[in-house]
Amino acid sequence: MMNKFNWNDYKYIVSTGCSYGVVKSGITHEFSSMFPEGKAGGPGATEVESYPFDLRYDNLNDNVIVISCALSSSGARWQSDSSIYVVGKLLEMGVHSDNIYCFVEWSEFQRNTFTSIQTSMDKVWKQLKVKWNIDEQDIRFIDKDNKRIFRSQNPNEDEHDILTELKKYIKVGVLDSHVRVGVIEDEYYITPSQVPALWNPDHGDREKWGVKVIGENAVKDVIDIKLDLWGNHLLEIDKLLHTELMFHDYIDYIVNTQNFLKLNNIKYNFTFINSQFSKWLHQGGGTIQFDRKGLNDLVNQETFELQKIDTPNTKVEDVFTNIKQKFKNLDLSNIYFHNSDRYQRGGIDEILLDKLGPTIYNQPYMKSDDFSNHGGTDIPNFGLHPKELLYSFVWDIVASNCNFLKLSKQYLDFIETRFNQDLENTDYESYNGLTLNKKLNKQLWTQWIKNGG
């Protein structure tokens, strides 16, 4: 395929993960304010949004392309396959290995991702549209020469030519259906335990998720039902998998990806959605439990501050002893585990909780017209997605092996200062749009605990 670009004129960051795999947001200054300016939102949001390009980066000497191939609700199989696929494509295009860096956020070990047997589902796939480069998946161009960031998903500007050209080579997307199915070229991926439409697949549930069992579009109805049947068949298989087997597979995917990157001399760093390798307990009688505490255990109900809790730190390899040898295959020098007096072997949740506290999960979709009547479904807890701009701290802490893109201390200090200002400011519900003030946060938290956490 001919193109007008010399691919080695650029540096490449390949990132993947689940819905937490959005480190692209932290390094390209993606910001959505909690509130528009006005009664609820203060004037600081405009200042955050317009923070100067030159001050964000520390000695940016290259034009950088960020290729995010994350997929929400996916498991380790997707993270492994997608990162290997995109890095492999870049190498096929002639990009030198020293121009590529890979960042992987590994999701929860129990998310078993399956691929389709193409012959049995081929007719279904041919009748459904694939949406390429949407949601967590995106290609962005950090243009140091023009001091701009171009996004392939931005509807308000023309797409940069280099992004249009790259999309001809890299085919990562999502099936346009009510069931979340990731796509890499002609391969289809589903993590059935993470698809709500499969949990209670009766007529009413399918209608709830926008699927007609009988309707004008009969062909689509049949396709949707076939997707349900396929997903539910895999969900039944998923339920039969033993925890130990899932963890063996989990480590295998990490090791396979690690070995591929090492074989091709690609620098990389790995981290996790949150702690997966610690807090494993023997409960007696052969029962083993994953005992990671939720935020309701970690937050002091009076002060709304994080507190230390006294729980055993049992490593997974000490519980599943036959994992020990396999665990030794992990190159821990390239894996970031967050350790503190609260957490052991933590990931993104623990990094940001220790850095900024329990209000990191405030998102625009959490707001309601009357906070006192908020039902509590989106109140802070593990897995409820830290604010996108806060991934700048994740990048700064985890991406130690990327030698061509560093965020400046001045920029990181600015974000932290503005985040803390939001907490303390009582004149606005969210002065800078990064989080809600303490009063509202505590109100939401109290309501959540009242509703049963």
Give the arrangement of secondary structure elements.
Elements lengths: L10 E6 L6 H5 L16 H6 L3 H4 L7 E5 L7 H17 L7 E7 L7 E2 L2 H9 L3 E3 L5 E6 L4 E4 L9 H6 L5 E4 L6 E3 L2 E4 L5 H4 L3 H6 L9 H23 L2 H21 L3 E6 L7 E5 L2 E4 L4 H4 L17 H4 L4 H4 L20 H9 L34 H8 L10 H16 L13 H13 L3
Parallel strand pairs: 1-2, 1-3, 3-11
Antiparallel strand pairs: 2-6, 4-10, 5-8, 6-7, 8-9, 9-10, 12-13
Helix pairs in contact: 4-10, 14-15
Describe the structure.
The protein is α+β, with helices and mostly antiparallel strands and 453 residues long. It folds into two domains: 7-112 and 130-176 and 242-278 and 315-450, no CATH class; 116-128 and 179-240, no CATH class. Helix content is 35%, strand content 13%. The strands form three sheets. Strands 7-6-2-1-3-11 form a six-stranded mixed β-sheet. It has a five-stranded antiparallel β-sheet with strand order 4-10-9-8-5, with helices on one face. The chain is globular.
Widest sheet: strand ordering: 7-6-2-1-3-11
Number of strands: 13
* Total tally of structural domains: 2
**Structural class by secondary-structure content:** alpha+beta
Counting DSSP H or I runs of 4 or more residues, the number of helices is: 17
Rg from alpha-carbon coordinates:
22 Å
Spell out the key features of this protein:
single chain, 453 residues, alpha+beta, 2 domains, 6-stranded mixed sheet, 17 helices, globular
